[in-house]
């Protein structure tokens, strides 16, 4: 019978996570403790080791070794492998695991199954499963305990939860630092907290209209494998998500995840900031699973997680894997004041000129998905325009290093070129047009969402029980059934009903001191949020210390994260919480060929090294843009807003983004 190796477990010194699914800090003290430096952890430190059979039972036997970053698999019989092939399962490619039992009463073995998404020879991810048979003891109860020990240890590592040690500090990789564990050295399912509750908002018309199909085929199975609890709502119109989040009881949710492009997350964030309790509401973790045509933030999350650049389904699977792991980081938000005085909040970009022209004019090619931007770029180059305007900005207080060491950016008398330094189970109440995971221990009938095109796939608590029999059962082998890791304890959320979701702003008691909520919700107006202490009113002179540029521009772009698109690395040095807005501009006089080369180089993040004299850059804390051309297009997070002067200020770490663990996946020696 396999026995655990009890070891000291720590987190990586260069960790960036501020919390994990199991340990989300609730106070400033929690956040400070979360960032305390842990002792180093060897990636190859063995945590568990044992011998297991396979399913079907006549298959080979394996020696398994679990380390903080991978599961090592070596075949023992019928013939040991000198060089194991496919014997390494990286935890970065694992979505979850479950325990199983045979439906044959005479089978005393227990089983645990691991769901993985390894890369194929062509680079794309494909779902694969590995099922192992715990049969070292005479009774099912003992074998079940061993299977649960391995499944629990693996889930703790995936979610960054502490594992018990020998009286020392104990914590999984990529997780926050913990105090000495009072738990015994036994790894039991009680280590696992309740499943995180996620609200999924799906725009069924996102991208090429495949968002619902991708969600049903890829997202829902994976988060069910990970043991995450969810409710899903399909949005029906513009600003629907914004209205929904205004009526949420946010204490019942661990995160809000949009399954669409960048536009739906824009609605969610502005809806949270519309609430009277916006100071607490905006702390609700938000995430994005890319199913739209513009997936810039997902591209930045993908890079933050250490994955190679990806598009389409591969990008969706990467981001889904990161979501299953849990973990988040602070997110800077940009408050944008428009000419009319209304204000909205941006997590992505403000654009004027070529970028906004391509974004809006390519809307008619939305059926092409992300290819619409390629076609829009070609058409934009053919009819290249210049725009006269004035850009003023408040430079960052500390001058960071330049984006590249080989080539500096052009400096003018009135221009200050800066760049930042690189960064070292639940029963849900009915919801409007919604579906729930309904996490029951046995397979459930297909669920349908009113108005959805097709029924949902069969889901169960710890993964698909029925499919296990079809995929691995041989002649004479009894099928396997899900065996829950942890039954719901008293007062668990299984018996608790969530509050129904209503549209519109929440009710505010008369004694609360908050102003009554408005029912007129506009995508460009967000009345809540912190004040802009760095900005004077539009139309008034700027204070000293600002830099002003005036002239003819091809484009002006203000961006917060690193990516302008899923495959456009506009600001390679940017971080989600660097407290900066990254300003780019291209002056008139650039040729069409040179502009095309800039965007092609942006796919690799090497556009600064081209030495283009028309390209300028500055890192700022606030900026003002004043178009002097009577006609043009302005966009905020890809959405067109009123044309005219605008100004914006960064509010550092105002929101929280679900990013998953940071770092570069790498194979162990």
UniProtKB/TrEMBL annotation:
This is sphingosine kinase. Keywords: ATP-binding, Kinase, Membrane, Nucleotide-binding, Transferase. Its main location: membrane. PROSITE patterns: DAGK (PS50146). GO terms for molecular function: ATP binding; sphingosine kinase activity. InterPro entries: ATP-NAD_kinase_N, Diacylglycerol_kinase_cat_dom, Lipid_Phosphate_FormReg, NAD/diacylglycerol_kinase_sf, YegS/DAGK_C. Residues 193-340 form the DAGKc domain. Pfam families: DAGK_cat, YegS_C. Its EC number is 2.7.1.91. Residues 420-456 are annotated as: Disordered. GO terms for biological process: positive regulation of apoptotic process; regulation of transport; sphinganine-1-phosphate biosynthetic process; sphingosine biosynthetic process. SUPFAM superfamilies: NAD kinase/diacylglycerol kinase-like. It is an enzyme of class 2 (transferase). It is found in: Endomembrane system. It comes from Camelus dromedarius. GO terms for cellular component: cytoplasm; endomembrane system; membrane.
């Amino acid at each position: 019978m396999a026995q655990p190796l009890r070891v000291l477990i720590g987190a990586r010194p260069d960790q960036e996570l501020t919390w994990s699914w199991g340990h989300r800090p609730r106070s400033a003290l929690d956040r400070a403790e979360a960032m305390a430096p842990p002792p180093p952890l060897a990636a190859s430190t063995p945590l568990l080791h044992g011998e297991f059979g396979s399913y079907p039972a006549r298959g080979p036997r394996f020696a398994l070794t679990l380390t903080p970053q991978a599961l090592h698999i070596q075949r023992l019989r019928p013939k040991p492998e000198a060089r194991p092939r496919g014997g390494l399962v990286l935890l970065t490619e694992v979505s979850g695991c479950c325990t199983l039992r045979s439906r044959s009463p005479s089978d005393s073995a227990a089983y645990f199954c691991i769901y993985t998404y390894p890369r194929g020879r062509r680079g794309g991810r494909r779902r694969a499963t590995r099922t192992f048979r715990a049969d070292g003891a005479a009774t099912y109860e003992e074998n079940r305990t061993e299977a649960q020990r391995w499944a629990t240890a693996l889930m703790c590592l995936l979610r960054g939860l502490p594992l018990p040690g020998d009286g020392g500090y104990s914590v999984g990789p990529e997780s926050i630092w913990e105090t000495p564990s009072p738990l015994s050295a036994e790894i039991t399912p009680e280590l696992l907290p309740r499943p995180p509750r996620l609200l999924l908002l799906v725009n069924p018309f996102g991208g090429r209209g495949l968002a619902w199909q991708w969600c049903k085929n890829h997202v829902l199975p994976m988060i069910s494998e990970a043991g995450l609890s969810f409710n899903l709502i399909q949005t029906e119109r513009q600003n629907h998500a914004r209205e929904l989040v205004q009526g949420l009881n946010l204490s019942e949710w661990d995160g809000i995840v949009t399954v669409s492009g960048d536009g739906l997350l824009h609605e969610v964030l502005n809806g949270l900031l519309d609430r009277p309790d916006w100071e607490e509401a905006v702390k609700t973790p938000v995430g994005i699973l890319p199913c739209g045509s513009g997936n810039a933030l997902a591209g930045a999350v993908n890079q933050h997680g250490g994955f190679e650049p990806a598009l389409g389904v591969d990008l969706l699977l990467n981001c889904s894997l990161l979501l299953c792991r849990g973990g988040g980081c602070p997110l800077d938000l940009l408050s944008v004041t428009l000419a009319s005085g209304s204000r909205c909040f941006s997590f992505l970009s403000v654009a004027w000129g070529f970028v906004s022209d391509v974004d809006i004019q390519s809307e008619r090619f939305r059926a092409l998905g992300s290819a619409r931007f390629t076609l829009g770029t070609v058409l934009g180059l053919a009819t290249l325009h210049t725009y006269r305007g004035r850009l003023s900005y408040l430079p960052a207080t500390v001058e960071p290093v330049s984006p590249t060491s080989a080539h500096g950016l052009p400096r003018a008398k009135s221009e200050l070129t800066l760049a930042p330094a690189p960064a070292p189970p639940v029963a849900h109440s009915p919801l409007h047009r919604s579906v729930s995971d309904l996490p029951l221990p046995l397979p459930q009938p297909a669920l349908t969402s009113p108005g959805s095109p097709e029924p949902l796939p069969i889901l169960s608590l710890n993964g698909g029980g029925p499919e296990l029999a079809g995929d691995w059962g041989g002649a004479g082998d009894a099928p396997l059934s899900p065996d829950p890791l942890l039954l719901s304890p008293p007062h668990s959320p299984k018996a608790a009903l969530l509050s129904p979701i209503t549209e519109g702003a929440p009710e505010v008691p008369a004694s609360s001191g908050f102003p009554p909520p408005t029912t007129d919700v506009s995508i460009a107006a967000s009345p809540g949020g912190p004040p802009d202490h760095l900005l004077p009113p539009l139309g008034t002179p700027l204070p000293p210390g600002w830099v002003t540029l005036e002239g003819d521009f091809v484009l002006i772009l203000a961006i917060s994260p690193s990516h302008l698109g899923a495959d456009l690395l506009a600001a390679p040095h940017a971080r989600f919480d660097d407290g900066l807005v990254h300003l780019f501009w291209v002056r008139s006089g650039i040729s069409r060929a040179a502009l095309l080369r800039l965007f092609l180089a942006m796919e690799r993040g090497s556009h600064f090294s081209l030495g283009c004299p028309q390209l300028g850059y500055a890192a700022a804390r606030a900026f003002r843009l004043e178009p002097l051309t009577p006609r043009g297009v302005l966009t905020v997070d890809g959405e067109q807003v009123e044309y005219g002067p605008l100004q914006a200020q960064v509010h550092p770490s105002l929101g929280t983004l679900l990013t998953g663990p940071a770092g570069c996946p790498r194979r162990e020696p």
